[in-house]
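wait is this the right file?? whatever heres the structure
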């Protein structure tokens, strides 16, 4: 019996190793991690930790661009009266809440033009529309109220799951991203970037266990013929929940050699992120911003989930256990992220604002990306913001 068991294990290993996706390039050696560059796109990416010189320079350049874009205005005056940063968490289909909140915010009449928008996974997708402003609200609503699971993934057959990198095929999501992220959107994002605003998305480089911060506006404004393809690829990687969705591979270079990086979604490293530790905003800004130009700073965080535990029967098989375990890990990790962002807001002089799906929202969900559920979440966020969003000024349970 033991011989049969050992033989079956050997066959399984051969199947998995033999059928797994083969990297087109070797893995980046640990000794070269700090020297990695995306070919043709200098300065569009930095590690979340330590400081990134490229992203630091981008932040300082943002103010110079903002000043240069205001020809005809009085010297020393800036169009944006405050520096507003928007952080969008992940949350899968619960991103409908953040989408609704942004549209309701527009209706309320005081939605700011954000200096920086930062997000990953569903937050990175919402972030595109948040960065572009109210003229894109119609597309934002469509993206979160008219889709279903078939627009996001296709579950693989059992044998394919055992011999591949993921449970589902994410080609439908890639096609959905391509539908909205077109040449016109890229031009509009590039225009916002040139006016001194920034759009970041986040992924996790899995071999290195490191967070990667991508300057999407810089990619859009690069003029590179592959800018659109890279932009879409970053968004797909940012949404690639490890083990459930396939990882995304990026071709990079270091010391004249070409390597391949494996990236999955940012939630593997953190649930809600601003500029992380890649830049020190006050240091970068003070280099070009005299005291007379310094403005109030506000941090807005939209958490696309509830913090309370949500009961769900878990079926005793991989397709149910793995996604549920990952969702539980991310939910609990998010509390610490909200506290970390509060600390960073205090350190960097930002007024802290937090919106979370209320705990009394208990609409049943039949399946992932259930259209009825997402429409009710959208309506909830919309009404909250339309009436004047009740932003929390501290993380949950602080000083209770």
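ok assuming it is, sequence goes like this
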């Amino acid at each position: 019996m033991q011989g049969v068991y050992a033989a079956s294990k050997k066959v399984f290993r051969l199947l998995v190793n033999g059928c797994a996706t083969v990297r087109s390039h070797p893995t980046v050696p640990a000794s070269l991690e700090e020297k990695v560059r995306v070919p043709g796109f200098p300065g569009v990416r930095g590690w979340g930790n330590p400081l990134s010189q490229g992203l630091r320079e981008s932040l300082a350049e943002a103010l110079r661009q903002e000043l240069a874009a205001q020809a005809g205005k009085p010297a020393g005056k800036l169009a944006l009266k405050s520096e507003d940063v928007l952080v969008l968490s992940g949350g899968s289909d619960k991103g409908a809440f953040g989408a609704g909140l942004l549209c309701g915010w527009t209706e309320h009449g005081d939605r700011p033009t954000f200096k920086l928008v930062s997000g990953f996974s569903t937050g990175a997708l919402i972030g595109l529309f948040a960065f572009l402003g109210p003229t894109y609200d119609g597309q934002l609503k469509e993206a979160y109220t008219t889709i279903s699971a078939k627009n996001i993934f296709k579950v693989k057959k059992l044998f394919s799951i055992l011999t591949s990198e993921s449970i589902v095929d994410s080609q439908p999501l890639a096609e959905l991203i391509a539908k909205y992220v077109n040449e016109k959107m890229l031009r509009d994002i590039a225009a916002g970037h040139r006016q001194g605003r920034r759009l970041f998305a986040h992924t996790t480089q899995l071999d290195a266990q490191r967070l990667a911060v991508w300057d999407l506006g810089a990619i859009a404004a690069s003029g590179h013929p592959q800018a659109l393809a890279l932009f879409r690829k970053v968004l797909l990687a940012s949404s690639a929940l490890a083990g459930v969705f396939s990882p995304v591979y990026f071709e990079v270079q270091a010391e004249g050699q070409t390597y391949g990086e494996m990236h999955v979604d940012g939630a593997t490293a953190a649930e809600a992120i601003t500029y992380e530790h890649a830049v020190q905003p006050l240091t970068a800004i003070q280099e070009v911003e005299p005291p007379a130009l310094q403005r109030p700073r506000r941090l807005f965080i939209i958490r696309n989930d509830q913090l309370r535990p949500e009961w769900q029967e878990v079926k005793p098989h991989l397709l149910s256990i793995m996604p549920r375990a990952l969702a539980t890990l991310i939910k609990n990790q998010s509390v610490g992220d909200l506290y970390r962002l509060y600390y960073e807001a205090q350190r960097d002089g930002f007024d802290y604002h937090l919106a979370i799906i209320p705990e009394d929202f208990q609409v049943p969900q039949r399946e992932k990306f259930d259209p009825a559920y997402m429409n009710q979440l959208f309506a909830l966020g919309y009404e909250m913001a339309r009436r004047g969003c009740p932003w929390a000024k501290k993380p949950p349970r602080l000083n209770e």
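The two ends are 59 Å apart (CA to CA). so i think its the right one actually
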